[in-house]
Design goal:
The chain has 166 residues and is mainly α. It has helices at 2-41, 44-53, 57-71, 77-102, 110-132, 141-159. The longest helix has 40 residues, at 2-41.
């Protein structure tokens, strides 16, 4: 039963890493598009100079930015940042609780461990339901792999564990 608790422990850290990376990813792209739109919107003065030098490039850039500005609200990067902030805070708290319980896991019976696992899985499910319900979060394979690598490195260092690839 302690193996199942350790898996929950690892999964909680892995998901914390994944959501943290997802938030950073969303922040990056949200800021990137916001800056591009601001440059295109404030570029009227620069357009006089650029229009003489690059007569086709500037209108093409402004036209492209108009499309980006129309599509940007539907990209959902900004919509993910706030819910992910709350998810990360709550996951950090749960991860710390699980870590604390891991230190005393061998003094608990299988029934107590089973109840702990159920309680933590319920808390994790509640967090996801409370903050991520209705938030579009497409799966990101690169973020998953990075979160997995960081989690494995942390657990290998802290608990001297080896992970097998299936």
């Amino acid at each position: 039963m302690s193996d199942q608790f350790f898996f929950l422990f690892f999964r909680a850290y892995y998901e914390l890493q994944y959501y943290t990376l997802y938030k950073e990813h969303s922040h990056f792209w949200n800021n990137f598009f916001t800056i591009l739109i601001a440059v295109a919107s404030c570029g009227g003065i620069a357009a006089w100079y650029c229009f003489d030098l690059y007569s086709m490039a500037w209108p093409l850039f402004v036209g492209l930015m108009q499309i980006v500005q129309a599509v940007f609200p539907h990209l959902n990067y900004a919509k993910r940042i706030t819910p992910l902030t709350y998810v990360i805070q709550d996951y950090s708290y749960i991860y710390n609780q699980i870590h604390h319980d891991w230190n005393t896991i061998y003094s608990k019976s299988d029934d107590e461990i089973s109840k702990l696992i159920f309680a933590y899985e319920q808390k994790i499910s509640d967090i996801k339901g409370r903050y991520l319900d209705g938030v579009p979060m497409p799966y990101r394979e690169k973020l998953r792999l990075r979160a997995e690598q960081e989690s494995e490195a942390r657990f290998k260092y802290e608990f001297n564990t080896q992970f097998e690839r299936m």
